[in-house]
Amino acid sequence: MQRKIISTEDGSKTLFIPEMDEQYHSVNGALTESEYVYLDKGYRHNQSATPVILEIGFGTGLNALLTAVEAEKKKRRTIYISLEKYPIEATEIEQLNYGSLISEEAEELFSALHNSEWNVKTEISPYFHLLKLKTDLTQFSFEELPMVDVIYFDAFGPDKQPEMWNEEIFRKLYGISNSNANLVTYSAKGEIRRRMERSGYISERLPGPPGKRQMLRATRP
Ligand SMILES: C[S@@+](CC[C@H](N)C(=O)[O-])C[C@H]1O[C@@H](n2cnc3c(N)ncnc32)[C@H](O)[C@@H]1O
After folding, report:
1. Contact (Cβ atoms closer than 8 angstroms) between residue 199 and residue 173
2. Which of 72, 87, 122, 188 is an S-S bond match for 214, by CB 3.0 to 4.6 Å?
3. Which domains does the chain carry?
């Protein structure tokens, strides 16, 4: 599938797939959305001192980058596992400007995240260990994962990729969630919320990032 680099409202870039008419992040600000939905409402909200994060869709690595920067800043030992079926190309990585928008340290972390080998747990920095799994979520056997504390559910939209948002997947995610684990996503659809609830999660609607009225956060009681 062909992808194009586009600029978003806050100056950060993202990828756009013309064939799907879908982008990797909000056009109202890629960095702003990641920071708000995943960092603020997910990673910072969760109380685990040494969290295990599971991300659905590594994509550009933006969520991973922001989490790595925060883990180092707060000295919060973090294990980050991310599933991805279609890794992006080196030429695309070079054109994304996330590191330079944040700091020199972030630029180095961004390269390290992308240079790390697929399917091998890698120490990116003292407080951030990464395991990128090149796999298809819909075929994935969740038994090989540890219990997790925060899930970044960052698949393409439910209308574009409904198979990623079905109840069976939320049930499997619930099964590997620790007590008080959080699942966050940019989607606020009522049907998605009901699927989370039927899987055992308690869900809440939160105010969304710029351009989106609401988002969802689910918690395992
Ligand atoms: C909205 S983008 C993710 C954005 C990413 N979190 C980031 O920060 O750039 C959705 C991601 O899910 C990936 N994806 C699509 N189908 C998948 C599947 N069946 N299994 C795993 N990943 C998939 C896409 O390739 C894409 O990288």
Report:
1. yes
2. 188
3. 29-219 (3.40.50.150)
**First vs last Cα of the chain: how many Å apart?**
40
Residue 212: which residues within 8 A CB-CB, separation 6 or more? 26, 28, 33, 186, 188
Q: 136 CA distance to ligand 1 centroid (A)?
A: 10
Ligand 1 geometric centre to CA of 57 (Å): 3
Which residue CA neighbors atom 10 of ligand 1 most closely? 155
The per-residue pLDDT string of the chain (221 residues; one tens digit each, 9 = 90 and over) reads: 899 999 999 999 999 999 999 999 999 999 999 999 999 999 999 999 999 999 999 999 999 999 999 999 999 999 999 999 999 999 999 999 998 899 999 999 999 999 999 999 999 999 999 999 999 999 999 988 999 999 999 999 999 999 999 999 999 999 999 999 999 999 999 999 999 999 999 999 999 999 999 999 999 99
